[in-house]
Design brief:
By secondary structure, this protein is mostly helical. It contains 10 helices and 2 strands, in the order βαβααααααααα. The chain has a two-stranded antiparallel ribbon. The radius of gyration is 33 Å and the shape is globular. The C terminus is likely disordered.
Amino acid sequence: MTSGGYDVVVDVDEEADLGHTDLQEDLEFHSSNFTDAAPNTRKPPTSSPASGKQYLWSLAFYAQFFDVDTSSVLHRCRSALYPRTNFLDILEGNPDLYGPFWIATTVVMILFLTGTISRYLAIKGEGHFVYDFGLLSGAAGLIYGYTFVIPPTLWGLLRYLGSESANLLECWALYGYANLIWIPVALISWSPITALNYAFVGIGFVVSVAFLIRNLYPVLSATRDSKTSQTLLIVVCVLHAGLAIAIKVLFFAHGSPAKKKDG
């Protein structure tokens, strides 16, 4: 027995005479698909992965920190350079480490390249120039250390002070995107003119520390100890000033401590 059905088509005369109906002439049978299952337009429910624990050594644990698209990262970069609203509102509850990691990596590479150019101009004509890869390791230690060590420390202190809104990923994202200003600063600070370099680094410091203060102040104000939170804000500014001075001294100054003298 086949599963196919039939459609019945009845031909009616123009005179509407239904008195005579010849099944051979007036009835036609066409194959039908009525017995076929109707297409299901509703999407089947997607099976959610098992809500198991995500361990530190699993890729799934770290993938959640990079769950962001390129347009969102670019929008956050623009908001970091030209802030019009609180950056934590721009994050929309979805802070990422993708932007902070690649911004820090870019700053490291540009500091190494421009620091090398600055060093070459400083010793030009004094002998054979040798690349100093200590600048690369120094830049990596300085930028990665500052970006990924200071935020957890700050977050721990905020939690200790009773801040309910403090979020570790938001602290990482805040410091990571604050580093964006050092990319253009590093690109123009290789000049042998010391005063000009100080001016560029100073601008970078002012822009980035203002970005940090603007976004950290509401969080610090929500703690139960206002005096301690104000002290913590001063410490944030001092540490950021230390970063700016280190960038200037280590990479854009003649006689840099990171520079090795030829024996």
